[in-house]
Amino acid sequence: MNQSELMLKAVSLAEKGKGKTFPNPCVGALIVAGDEIVGQGYHKAYGSDHAEVEAINDAVSKGYDLSLCNLFVTLEPCNHHGKTPPCTRAILESGLKNVMIGARDPNKHVAGGGAEFLQQSGIRVTTGIEEQKCMDLIADFTVWQQTSRSYLYLKMASTLDGRIATREKHSRWVTSDASRKKVHQLRSMVGAVIVGANTFYRDNPKLTCRGLENENQPLRIIVTSRLPEPGSDFFLLKQRPDETIFWTDLKTSASSAADRLKNMGCHVMALDKNQNGLDLNQGLTRLRQDRNVHYALCEGGGKLGLSFIESGLADEVWHFIAMKILGDDQGVPVFYGREPKFMHEAISLRMNCSRVIGDDLWIKLFPKKDIAP
Question: What does the alpha-carbon distance between residue 345 and residue 313 come to, in Å, rounded to a whole number?
């Protein structure tokens, strides 16, 4: 395997820790002797050994001389004391002579650069191997470092011709059981699930995580300027109302309907307005600051999803495409709300990967922007 293939293996390894390491990044590492992977590790949970230490210990336990090996790691080794000692020290003590790094650390507050420290200590360092993939891996960490808000997943599901429901608003089910199971796995990782008014009033959703052994039940957030009556027959008002939050405008938040919802245990949060409607960034910032929510998931309709994208807040888009065709121009489109006249006005996203899940195609997308944070 070449350097790129080895780094991508480290990326796949790191993804096992996604959602378990926050507020730290997920990292993967390999110890390679010649063409053989002799040690591997990933950051399993916040406060546990880092990926480099895991990989070093794995190789040492098998009796390998690390001075003859190379280290591949998706993120620049830390050079500061946190919950664990600096990984640069562990690398020096291991005898490793060559370190291959995918991405540089976007954390500007750490004490010194790990790559520079290793180079100054006589270790040969190579950076930028599969840099984009490694930066995508820590896109959440980069958001946490550069902003005060939650990292937002945007999940959409559509037919092959881009419809999320029929003209009669029937949408169950667009995608397969396998895709829905993956969505529930994502729900189990996030701290809040967000939907818009149309989804709330039309589908009466539960927004719960189901079918998993460790079911984390996220907060439920409805973005709307029209609040329901407390006696309405909605699941979210009857079950765990204290974990249901309505994001709305200032005037609506001060209404009698808001007071009645609050008396039921629901929360009504007033957001400022901007050119795109409600200030969704403010809502995500309050989620992280007030509720310690590092990951949020939007499962709203096409208009709300587009609002997050246009606001630059959709950090990672999961699009499930069912191999079905409605063929009806009156069906509900996956995104709507813009009126571009020319193709160059389209919003461009960057594909990270695609995979067949059940009968569907899953595409993971990121906003188009420079690699460097």
Answer: 19
Could you identify the residue written with the tokens 């280290």?
71
Cβ burial, residue 251 (10 Å; 0-12/13-18/19+): exposed
Tell me whether residue 168 is one of the annotated catalytic residues.
Answer: no
Bridge partners of residue 220, in order along the sequence: 193, 244
Which residues 6+ apart lie within 8 Å of 291 measured at CB? 191, 192, 219
Which helix (H) or strand (E) element contains residue 76?
A: none
Query: pLDDT tens across 85-139, in order?
Result: 789 999 999 999 999 999 999 887 664 588 999 999 999 999 999 999 999 999 9
Identified catalytic residue from 52, 76, 243, 316: 52
Give residue-wise pLDDT tens across range 130-178: 999 999 999 999 999 999 999 999 999 999 999 999 999 888 899 999 9
Q: Where on the phi/psi map is residue 220: left (φ > 0), alpha (ψ -120 to 50), or beta?
A: beta
Burial 271-300 (b: 16+ CB within 10 A, else e): beeeeebbbbbbbbebbbeebebbbbbbbb
